[in-house]
Amino acid sequence: MNVSHRAASHAAFRDWARRLVAHHNATSTKADDGRDVYQTSTIAALLEGVYDGDVTIAELLGHGDFGLGTFNHLDGEMLILDGVCYHLHADGSVNTAADDDLTPFAAVMRFQADKRVPVDAPCDRAALTRLIDEATASRNLLYAVRVTGDFSTMHTRTVMEQKRPYPPFGEAAAGQKETVLHDVRGTLAGFRTPAYEQGVSVAGYHLHFIDEQRRSGGHALDFHMRRGTVEISATSELHLSLPRTDEFLKAAQLSQAEVDSQIHRTE
User: Fold this and answer.
1) Residue 262: CB atoms within 10 Å
2) Is 234 exposed, middle or buried (0-12, 13-18, 19+ CB in 10 A)?
3) CATH code linked to domain 34-266
């Protein structure tokens, strides 16, 4: 091989090596970002009455420090903030979930705010979600949303623990506990999910609330906010883990139309 050919070969090798390293670094950065949403089971399975899962809270927290869901037997609401998993009970009480508690449905991620938006004027749920919509880049990405502020009213509901044989979610939700809190400061947190994920998740906004003292909260139905701050974290990665419980494996399949109507009734 003459000198010119040898130099060309070395140059080609260096270019190949640079591309390989660049690809590795890009892949590593994406993986290390930790923005992927880890979700166990689907909202369609929950609507069907699959209220027992096989993922522990300890496992769930290994995938993220922010999220929401529920607990086995549909026993109340779950909200994860700053790596702490709160169990919001139908009787109005709140406690920190045990590591070995189980969940039939939950979604978590590592929250990193891409954007912060101040809320300086009073607004209701519709106005706040419009503000968030305007602050996001796409309707086709998944966004985690955390809102900290003062609320003149916060209307929540909390599902009650179910006994076997489990009824469908629509029937179980009919007995939910509803509460209206007044003049409360706290955190509203959850996800805005693209429409095409309906049935896998809840399309649109799915938000839970907990007060500043961590004494009360639930699934947010409606609210009026005085002022606060919105934090938004975007992700394009979803890791869906399906349970291997008998209930999930043998659950009847819901049609998309049934999923839509049931979610609209219960949300």
Assistant:
1) 21
2) middle
3) 3.30.1330.80
| pLDDT number for residue 249 | 87
Q: What are phi and psi of 40, to 5 degrees?
A: -105, 130
| Distance from C-alpha of 211 to C-alpha of 218, rounded to nearest angstrom | 10
Strands of the sheet containing 106-109, edge to edge, are: 94-96, 84-88, 77-81, 66-70, 106-109, 37-40, 238-241
The 10s digit of each residue's pLDDT in 106-143 is 999 999 999 999 999 999 999 999 999 999 999 999 99
Q: Residue 201 gets which letter from DSSP? A: B
Predicted confidence at residue 25, as pLDDT, reads 41
Tokens of 202: 């809840």
Rounded Cα distance between 238 and 73, Å, is 25
**Distance between CA atoms of 68 and 193, rounded to whole angstroms?**
13
The span from the CA of 239 to the CA of 108, in Å, is 10
Spatial CB neighbours of 96, under 8 Å, sequence gap ≥ 6: 84, 85, 86, 87
Residue 193 class from Cβ within 10 Å (0-12 exposed, 13-18 middle, 19+ buried)? buried
Per-residue pLDDT, averaged over 226-242, amounts to 96
For residue 58, what are the contacts with CB-CB under 8 A and spacing of at least 6? 99, 100
pTM across the whole model: 0.84
